[in-house]
Amino acid sequence: MKVLVVGSGGREHALAWGLARSPRVREVLIAPGNGGTAALGRNVDVDATDVDGLVGLAREEKVGLVVVGPEQPLVDGLVDRLTAMGLAAFGPRSDCARLEGSKAFAKAMMDRCKVPTARWGSFTDEASALAWLERADFDVVVKASGLAAGKGVLIPASKEEAAAGVREMFSGAFGAAGAEVVLEERLVGEEASLLAFCDGTRFVVMPPAQDHKRVGEGDTGLNTGGMGAYAPAPVASAERDALADLAIRPILKAFAADGVPFKGVLYAGLMLTADGPRVLEYNTRFGDPECQVLVPLLASDLLDVILGCVHGRLDRTAVRWRDEVAATVVCAAPGYPGTYPKGLPIAGVAEADALPGVTVFHAGTTLDGEVLRSSGGRVLAVTGRGPSLQGALDRAYAGVDLIAFDGMHVRRDIGWRALRS
Ligand code: AMP
Ligand code: GLY
Known about the structure:
The chain has 421 residues and is α+β, with helices and mostly antiparallel strands. It has three domains: 2-94, Rossmann fold (3-Layer(aba) Sandwich), CATH 3.40.50.20; 125-179, Dna Ligase, domain 1, CATH 3.30.1490; 190-420, ATP-grasp fold, B domain (D-amino Acid Aminotransferase, Chain A, domain 1, 2-Layer Sandwich). Helix content is 31%, strand content 27%. It contains 16 helices and 22 strands. The protein has helices at residues 10-20, 51-60, 71-75, 78-84, 94-101, 103-112, 126-135, 159-170, 234-237, 240-247, 249-257, 291-297, 302-310, 349-353, 389-400, 416-420; strands at residues 2-7, 27-32, 42-43, 65-68, 89-90, 120-123, 140-144, 153-154, 181-185, 190-200, 203-205, 210-211, 214-216, 220-223, 228-231, 262-273, 276-283, 325-332, 358-362, 365-368, 371-374, 378-386. A hairpin with a 2-residue loop joins strand 20 (365-368) and strand 21 (371-374). The protein starts with a strand and ends with a helix. The model has no long low-confidence stretch (mean pLDDT 96). The structure holds adenosine monophosphate (AMP) and glycine (GLY). Adenosine monophosphate binds at residues 118, 141, 150, 152-153, 155, 184, 186-187, 191, 213, 269, 280-281.
């Protein structure tokens, strides 16, 4: 089978890597891909947001399956278009992707499904939002309801700052994503990412993962797309099935009842508070960098699992996991998550990738002739696998230590919360 992976990040490199290992996959196309995916398959220069271009590519190349990495094409209806053409596509239809594309929709869905979440309000005008804020007797988080590439959440230190954030969103600083604003209670606790493969009615939950969203060690500083991750995360492992019953099952049931069965990956971002688990948000795709630890932990054939979801046959699909721990460490460009240079030559990737138990996933790279250069803020994600978290981290950091580009920065404390307990 010929498979098309949509996207260009570390997540998509991990998906392409997993699919390329399947004996049933003949060729992997990646649109647009990166310097790492070029070595596994064929990069095609069609942007991940170009729905018409992707539909045309899938038709011309007669691919047997399209695997969609990022959220934007899901929200824009790529899977609906491919499915209407009779093509197998992995990812939710747009009606289901709204769960990620509209935080207001997601909060309403959580209330309807009795999923525990922070107290909230959603607003399309500034005056009502400010009035709600005035009345709130708890700390508040300000969110642009629409897709904002991970930058739409403000965690203000005071009510005045929250009000300024509300005004900023309604003044258009977040574009269309901020036309609707969600205000919610600020929760305190440890975060965990619970992802599940879904086939419309059934699901198989993956090992819980933990991401490190802040740029600085000890989880300080600005938010990023994610500086590293590991799985299984002990903070949620014992409770995994109970958490899935709370956060995944009722959502799938509601979508199925509405006649819009959810197929693909459903990702619940959890906050484990002193009062119990709460869902912060849903993503309707693999996380990045969670994917770079989950795909290497999957012992079953990724193609089989994906087709099991697409064809509504997860009950007859084996989904087995390695009895190991995986950790990934992101090598970021200088200045990230602010402005950063591109085109930096990168050394040591092949050497790192050759270490036992280490896989280097490319996130923002491009091949310039023979030279690998950076092309994004998150440049590489170096994954290590081992019998323990410490073993996995040792391998990942041994890989990182072989890699060099000007101003490269990494967090040296991935997994610290699990190691501490
Ligand atoms: P999101 O963009 O929705 O993934 O949110 C980004 C991050 O903002 C989350 O991973 C949390 O760290 C933080 N966050 C979101 N909602 C809340 C909340 N209600 N309370 C505290 N932190 C939150
Ligand atoms: N790692 C968080 C996300 O993919 O949204």
